[in-house]
Amino acid sequence: MHTVVMTKGVPDFREGQVSFDEEGHLERGKTPTVMNPNDKHALRAAFQTKVRNGGHVSLMSMGPPGYKEVLQEGMRDVYADDLYLLSDREMGAADTWATAMTVATGLQKLADQPDLVFAGFKTADGETGHTGPQTCWCLDWPIITHVLSLDIDEDAGTVRAKRLVDGDISEIETVEAPMPCFIVADPEFEPTYRRASHRLKHKDLREETQERAEEYEESLTVWDHEDLNLDPDYIGLDGSPTIVSGVDPIPKAPSEREATMIEADDSEALEPVLDELTPYAAGD
């Protein structure tokens, strides 16, 4: 069983204002980057498959050299057996379509073809949710989206999943698809390990991946567009039909905020503060 998880670096908004060039493209080299939070749900789903069914988990991303640290984050915080980075200048400033074509080619280049490819619901920056489904379209595979839970039947070569209908938490359906298959994990996905043996294996694998993450470059493969035999005219900015019409600036939190200092034993000063905060504590 070989599973691959697609991931992307997104701006770490906790670090303040991100940087854009004059044409509205995000300058990722000048912006603090972290692993897209929704991709960690996808990686946890793949890790659950590893624990329950065995096999191999690969983590793949397309982006600048700094994305090595994004891959390391995924390996350290969740799990990965190995890492793949698709990276060079020709791939830069790609929209979701050009990214999907590149990632699909990277998946096809893997020596051990994947049984399942996992993707996050959407990214924290673009929020389109396009790249996973578009990559799946390039491969002509079945896809199951908004997945809440899943089980693998290796003998039958199928995956059975519970998913939200149209993203509605009030309506859930169970579907089945043949492998290879694309899985888009919903943010509501929660891994489950009911067997004691699975919980023990989960613990052991977490320790292994954290050790491996310390020397992550030993598990990292980097491919450029020549390695993937991709025409530069069809990838990166040149291969992107999307036109950025404008970008709204991201407001930066004020460095100083007003605060009222109250001593713990000053009950008279505390009373109006408690009166103001009590409704929030009650959920109003």
Describe the structure.
30% of the residues lie in helices and 24% in strands. It has 6 helices and 11 strands. The chain has helices at residues 37-53, 67-77, 96-109, 131-139, 196-214, 267-281, and strands at residues 2-7, 9-11, 33-35, 56-62, 82-86, 116-119, 143-153, 158-165, 168-178, 181-185, 220-223. α2 (67-77) runs antiparallel to α5 and α3 packs across α4 (131-139). The longest helix has 19 residues, at 196-214. It is globular and about 70 Å long. The model has no long low-confidence stretch (mean pLDDT 90).
Main sheet attributes: strand count, strand direction, barrel closure: 9 strands, mixed
Strand order of the largest sheet: 9-8-7-10-6-1-4-5-11
Tell me the strand percentage band: 15-25%
Shape annotation: globular
Q: Residue ranges: pLDDT <50 for 5 or more in a row?
A: none
Q: Into which percent range does the helicity of residues fall?
A: 25-40%
Number of strands: 11
CATH H-level superfamily title: HUPs
Structural class: alpha/beta
Protein name: Electron transfer flavoprotein subunit beta
Keywords: Coiled coil
GO molecular function: electron transfer activity
InterPro entries: ETF_a/b_N, ETF_b, Rossmann-like_a/b/a_fold
Please specify the SSE layout and strand pairing.
Blueprint: E1 2-7, E2 9-11, E3 33-35, H1 37-53, E4 56-62, H2 67-77, E5 82-86, H3 96-109, E6 116-119, H4 131-139, E7 143-153, E8 158-165, E9 168-178, E10 181-185, H5 196-214, E11 220-223, H6 267-281
Parallel strand pairs: 1-4, 1-6, 4-5, 5-11, 6-10, 7-10
Antiparallel strand pairs: 2-3, 7-8, 8-9
Helix pairs in contact: 1-5, 2-5, 3-4
